[in-house]
Amino acid sequence: MKGAVAGASRCRSAQVARRIVHNGRMDRVLEPEIMDGEAEAAAYARADFSDSNQAYVADVMKSFADQLANVVDLGCGPGDIAIRLSRAATTTRITGVDGSPAMLAIARAALQSAGLRSRVSFLEGRLPGVALVDASFDLVLSKDMLHHLPDPQVLWSEVRRLGRPGAAVCVVDLSRPATSAAAHEIVERVSGSEHPLLKTDFYNSLCAAFTAEEVRDQLSAAGLSFTVSQLTERHLCVKGYLPG
Ligand SMILES: C[S@@+](CC[C@H](N)C(=O)[O-])C[C@H]1O[C@@H](n2cnc3c(N)ncnc32)[C@H](O)[C@@H]1O
User: Fold this and answer.
1) d(CA 193, CA 88)
2) How far is ligand 1, taken at its centre, from the CA of residue 8, in Å?
3) What is the pTM of this model?
4) At 237, which helix (H) or strand (E)?
5) Domains, the chain, ranges and CATH?
6) How confident is residue 36, by pLDDT bands cut at 50, 70 and 90?
7) Which of the listed residues 109, 167, 220, 244 has the most CB atoms within 10 Å of its CB?
8) Segment 174-228, tens digit of pLDDT
9) Pocket mutation for ligand 1, best pick of 59, 98, 143, 170 (most atoms within 8 Å of C-beta)
10) Is the CB of 161 inside a 6 Å radius of any atom of ligand 1?
């Protein structure tokens, strides 16, 4: 998570103080799962993720042009991705799901302004066990939620449950740098001029993220044969299709 969050940052201060390293690689340090504070949600929604969100939507449109009829976005946050996708794919129906009422209030306000309520809806729900029908989606999306989950299998089991046989999947998330110093270096280079709280939160998100190798292991344990690629030094992408 990259939004500025005073409360969450305070909660994590003890964790920030110690980063455990094994075999030269920093271990994962969890950050809070649901972004349920109003200030936290507002700060996240104010941050400008337009470039990465637009790139994600463009890639989804290009990669899965035939799978856009009924789409779910897990951990939709303030709804920017669902709204962008709806503008670009005008016959698509999209359901955004998030466990944070504060995030969903922002998402619904944005949806109202966008005038897209007939094609996009937002549902409050926490994975696992979101109140959506099994096998009801052609495409399952999730951006920047995986690193919030203490147990990553929560995402992969929900992806498998919600996608219809043969559904497409596209998950993008941060990837954890090898060391704390590398995480600090990325934060300074990418968001050096941002508010200090935003930078702290970005750092904590990098430390909570998985490596591409760890995600491959998760998928193997889940019996899912998706492709994991390192998009940039700090982003990884998981793509594929559920068994038909
Ligand atoms: C960093 S935000 C990403 C929001 C959005 N996908 C984006 O890229 O802008 C992560 C979101 O995942 C939500 N989240 C985390 N764990 C969740 C869970 N188990 N169930 C539902 N939502 C969850 C948080 O509340 C938060 O809104």
Assistant:
1) 31
2) 14
3) 0.92
4) strand 235-241
5) 13-241 (3.40.50.150)
6) confident
7) 167
8) 999 999 999 999 999 998 887 787 788 899 999 999 999 999 999 999 999 999 9
9) 98
10) no
Structure tokens at 28: 């994962």
In angstroms, the CA 123 to CA 48 distance is 23
Which of 126, 72, 140 shows the shortest CA–CA distance to 98? Answer: 126
Beta-bridge partners for 173:
236
User: Of all atoms in ligand 1, which is nearest to the CA of residue 100?
Assistant: 25
Structure tokens at 37: 């504070």
pLDDT tens, 220-236?
Answer: 999 999 999 999 999 99
Alpha helix (H) residue ranges in 12-79: 13-17, 38-46, 50-63
Using CA atoms, how far apart are residues 131 and 8, in angstroms rounded to an integer? 27
